[in-house]
């Protein structure tokens, strides 16, 4: 507008020319401004296109890398790799198992040395190959027995002269071989330092009450050992052998029940161990007396089970918490124990909260086979032989007069 006014008054052009000059100048300015905006827009678009091109390049390289990875994975033989991994895991498991067994052996050796005062010489087993089988009475049932009977006088003399000794044999967990508990093993000392095992001084039947007296003493001393172990900060479980002889003595059983009932810590760790054959032959009165022990919390362990085709649900209801089977027979003749595969037997028994203990382990190969079959507990001479009870756990001399009870 100022250009037109200047041209009209300063240059003397006509009004129409001044308007034309003004319009031309305005149009020129508009073109110049529009060009500036266009160049700035084109520059901005060029930058954005360049950035997009860079992003596309990155995406293309990523796709190339992913394509290479997919091709690599597609060429891998998964089956061979899985076999290699499984082989490595198996080797590693073997190494770990051997290491755990070595550590457990050291721990068990230390525990056995701490528990033992001295290792007594074991007596030579007697030759019974030419002895005819006898039958023994158990309650109201007659049971076949392949060993000769021994006179009750051997036990009576041992009690009178204080020659009865208590030994402990550990039961360990597998594979770590930590101590689950101990069997209380009675032995009779003889001149010359020899010891008689239970089979050599315990007769199959007794009408004098001597066996009941012995078993009452064992339960009392077992409770005493558990109590003193708990007091010393070394809690342990104890498996005490009994028979129908003790269950026939009502007065003795009632005294023991009152003794054990007075200490709840003892009842949880005390297990009465009886041969499964004798347990099955108990009469009604004997089972009723045994159930009195179960009611106060004492557990039952069935020793020398003839078969694992048992009603474990019913046994658990009757207080049975552990069963013992022979290791060699389980390995050599598994069908004589169960119709299940060996690896499934322990899980089947454990399903009813009953522990399976493999007894009479005599060599390391047996332990390896038990590990393969997932057996939880084991016991035997190879693991640890019976060792004398520490005097501080007994709390008294091992001299027992036959008139003590």
TrEMBL record:
Q: Which UniProt keywords apply?
A: Membrane, Transmembrane, Transmembrane helix
- Keyword presence, Transmembrane helix: yes
The record's annotation in Pfam families points to:
EAL (PF00563)
Q: Per its UniProt record, what PROSITE patterns does this chain match? A: EAL
Write the protein's name.
EAL domain-containing protein
For this protein, the parts annotated as crossing the membrane are 6-33
Record domain EAL: where: 148-400
Residue numbers spanned by region Disordered: 116-142
Q: Which organism is it from?
A: Maritalea mediterranea
The record ties this protein, via InterPro entries, to: EAL_dom, EAL_sf
